[in-house]
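Quick one: sequence plus S-adenosylmethionine SMILES, need structure tokens.
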Amino acid sequence: MWFSHAFAWQVPNSLLHRNHRDNVGPSHLTVGPGNGYFLSKLPKDTPLRTLHLLDLNPACLEITRKRLSGRFDIRTTEQDALKPWPVEPESLDSVDSHMMLHTVRGKDMWDKEPLMAEAARALKPGGRFFGCTVLGKGDELRINALARRLLDLYNSQENTFCNLGDSPEDLRKVLEKHFSTVDFQVVGTVGVWVATK
Ligand SMILES: C[S@@+](CC[C@H](N)C(=O)[O-])C[C@H]1O[C@@H](n2cnc3c(N)ncnc32)[C@H](O)[C@@H]1O
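Reply:
Sure thing.
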């Protein structure tokens, strides 16, 4: 996370910490928590109380649940994020998807649209969907030699990356289709956003 974010994807972890800190609300759902590292670094005065974790890997759910169970009321769901989520419409204050869309199967960002549609459905009006993902193609991206090598390597392995068709233009368009305001930027090879319902 430290090496590849800094040298391959060229996105500062401080930006990802800030994205979490500034946008998480009392009732929050994280799509693809991994080991829960960024959630574990939320400041003491975070408004977060109820934390839903959604992941198709039960090990990620268990590691994150154990890591954060003293701090938040945690609910876990083991499933593919492209399938309908078992949460009520307009029930959440915030949803995040950090460094996971590039691992979701699909030929381009439009195949991953059901995840954004579910986030929009689950959020209250004014709720925020924030996140970031490594993108695989597009003139705006700063793809250096290490990033090129890792993109090709990870996309050639099973169950690692699937993002060679993911572009900033499509990501922005998918977000704009489902949210009323979208703050989107490209940093290195990474698309970073905060979208408001
Ligand atoms: C690289 S980790 C990101 C972890 C964390 N969000 C972070 O920023 O450090 C990707 C996570 O997405 C999950 N994931 C990948 N594809 C998924 C899918 N289709 N549905 C749900 N979770 C998925 C993985 O199991 C893993 O927990």
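The CA atoms of residues 92 and 123 lie 5 Å apart. The pocket of S-adenosylmethionine is lined by residues 32-34, 37-38, 55-57, 60, 80-82, 98-100, 103-104 (CB under 6 Å).
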